[in-house]
Amino acid sequence: MRTRMRRLRREPAVRRLVRETRLDVDDLILPVFIAEGRGVVEPVPSMPGVYRYSVDTLSALLQEVVAFGIPGIIVFGVPAAKDARAFGAYAADGVVQRGVAAIKDRYPGLLVITDVCLCAYTDHGHCGLVENGAVLNDPSVELLAETALSHVRAGADMVAPSDMMDGRVGAIRALLDAEGFEEVPVMSYAAKYASAFYGPFRNAAGSAPQFGDRRSYQMDPANALEALREVALDLEEGADIVMVKPALAYLDIIRRVKDTFEVPVAVYNVSGEYALVKAAAQKGWIDERALVLEMLTGMKRAGADIILTYFALDVARWLEEG
């Protein structure tokens, strides 16, 4: 037998030599929840190992991020007050704005990305302004652009609109450019699906909708061609990086986006994916380390250049251990 595939599998050193896909710490971004108050280190019950931090308690976490060489974090705000117009999202002294300023002051070399959305700040929990039960697109886009600008003024290195309103990337790009921030990249949640995997995140951020759902603006999980149209539109509007969210159930979308567009592709290993692994690991049903590394390698093999994951610190530690 001239061809024996097992010849390249027999020895660990040979397997390393021929490995096609490599997961690296440089691929990782850690999501971070910043809450109001002082002395806050509050566990998220549905996400074991994930916490809400106040600005003054972030240092220990960020020291680990920097020590392990993780390139950056993405910041989500947990405000104390909500209202119909999401004032806290774009207020100069909002929780994200103060958090970003403090982080960049202490860790200037750490990449700080901000999630740009209104849902955690609205009293109805939707990602835009609501009138007569309907989520308004264009008025919401104006506030999203103001939110992105306030984050950048506070020191954010990159903004990531996650709302899925039509035209928000173009509005953000235009406003940032007009204000002299043309060098700040936009990472768009370009193909964000109306997924059942978001439940634990909504618990962590307090962003669950108070009525209805988000299917009128987030994508139908059954659609693939629509994702390519969404990505194309966001790129035309000025997105520098495009994201597919969630990751596990959408590996085919990641692959199609990567094959179609020659741009950096990010994926979000979302809260539900994290919680499922943690729950099974706590029961002793799985090997958490082996499963997480397999999952994230699969995302990268599918075409992801950047992986946002709550496992970032664990993965960085495991990779360092070899």
UniProtKB/TrEMBL annotation:
Pathway: Porphyrin-containing compound metabolism; protoporphyrin-IX biosynthesis; coproporphyrinogen-III from 5-aminolevulinate: step 1/4. InterPro entries: ALAD, ALAD_AS, Aldolase_TIM. 5-aminolevulinate 1 binds at residues 202, 214. Zn(2+) binds at residues 117, 119, 127. The active site is at 192 (schiff-base intermediate with substrate), 245 (schiff-base intermediate with substrate). PROSITE patterns: D_ALA_DEHYDRATASE. It comes from the Bacteria. Keywords: Heme biosynthesis, Lyase, Magnesium, Metal-binding, Porphyrin biosynthesis, Zinc. Its EC number is 4.2.1.24. GO terms for biological process: protoporphyrinogen IX biosynthetic process. Catalyzes an early step in the biosynthesis of tetrapyrroles. Binds two molecules of 5-aminolevulinate per subunit, each at a distinct site, and catalyzes their condensation to form porphobilinogen. Homooctamer. This is Delta-aminolevulinic acid dehydratase. It comes from Desulforudis audaxviator (strain MP104C).
